[in-house]
Design brief:
Elements lengths: L6 E6 L4 E4 L4 H18 L5 E4 L11 E5 L6 H8 L9 H4 L3 E8 L5 E6 L5 E2 L5 E4 L2 E4 L4 E2 L7 E4 L2 E4 L2 H7 L11 H8 L4 E2 L4 H4 L3 H13 L1 H4 L2 H9 L7 E4 L2 E5 L4 H11 L3 E3 L6 E3 L10
Helix pairs in contact: 7-10
């Protein structure tokens, strides 16, 4: 079987629009080998695949996150199936907004290997000199440097990565990182176990708080566990949770103070826990449900 070489696409602008990067044959061969080698480091054969939930960040080098299945954006899917029909990368107009590279290795099921790009990897002819023979000379043209590692691998309809932050720089993954919408926040405020005197700060919440609110809402913890039990368990960790009676019903008070609200959201999202052996109180925003057998 003839070897399959990668077609290199540049991902340009906020929408990561694909642009074809024509390559000399020898460079195409070298880049194909480089990207394939990087893929074996990103996802070794013996790694553990962990489905991405938005609440777990692996610190184990043997763990790789996955979104299964993953649907490629339309323009990228079209470019991957027919790279030669993709608009050509324009160094003059596109390089300032270059976000990453996608190496497409075509087959029965295409493999796409993504790298992140940043401005530090631009080779500017005005600021670069090249040693040739016994003297230095100016570069004739500007260029770019590829990275030393991959951010993402797409293969067989699945997406694999180690860092969500890096992966989201080359692909739009907002749909996979749940944040409470304005409608979600209004539903949270209506919960019969919650009392909020001034909800302005919640309605103006940033990504961190909206992610915690989404976790709390989706877990149903405020529907399943009564306020008195929540207060008791918070107290055991040295966390103060206040309640009030509203129409004869006990409710958890959401503080108006930003720092106190943050502490409450961390507790309700179960970011606090005690070590099984020492009973030490820990806090972590990275957690993964373990199915006991």
């Amino acid at each position: 079987m003839a070897p399959r070489f990668a077609n290199l696409l540049a991902l340009v602008g906020p929408e990561r629009e694909p642009r074809r990067m024509p390559l000399e044959a020898s460079l195409q061969s070298d880049l194909t080998q480089l990207f394939r080698e990087q893929a074996t480091f990103l996802r070794p054969a013996d790694c553990d695949i962990v489905d991405f939930t938005g609440s777990y960040r692996p610190d184990d080098p043997d763990e790789v996150l996955a979104i299964r299945p993953f649907v490629l954006p339309g323009p990228l899917a079209e470019a991957a199936s027919a790279p030669q029909g993709c608009p050509r990368f324009n160094v003059t107009s596109d390089i300032a907004d270059l976000r990453g590279f996608a190496a497409v290795i075509r087959g029965n099921s295409p493999q796409i290997l993504f790298q992140v790009f940043d401005r530090r990897r631009v080779i500017d002819r005005a600021r670069s000199i090249l040693f040739s023979g016994s003297t230095f000379s100016r570069l004739a043209e500007s260029g770019v440097m590829v990275d030393t590692g991959l951010a993402v691998e797409y293969v067989d309809g699945n997406l694999f990565f180690r860092s969500f932050a890096a992966a989201s720089r080359v692909l739009d993954l907002d749909a996979y990182y749940r944040q409470a919408t304005s409608a979600d926040i209004e539903e949270f405020l209506k919960l019969p176990t919650i009392h909020v005197e001034d909800a302005t700060h919640l309605r103006k919440s940033g990504p961190w708080a909206r992610h915690r609110l989404a976790q709390i809402i989706d877990s149903g913890v405020l529907d399943r566990i009564d306020p008195s039990t929540i207060v008791e368990r918070a107290t055991s960790l040295g966390i103060s949770v206040s309640t009030t009676m509203v129409k004869g019903r006990q409710r958890i008070v959401v503080p108006t103070d930003k720092r106190a609200t943050k502490t409450l959201l961390q507790f309700l999202a179960e970011d606090h826990f005690r070590g099984a052996l020492t009973g030490t109180h820990f806090m972590s925003s990275s957690k993964r449900v373990v199915n006991s057998r």
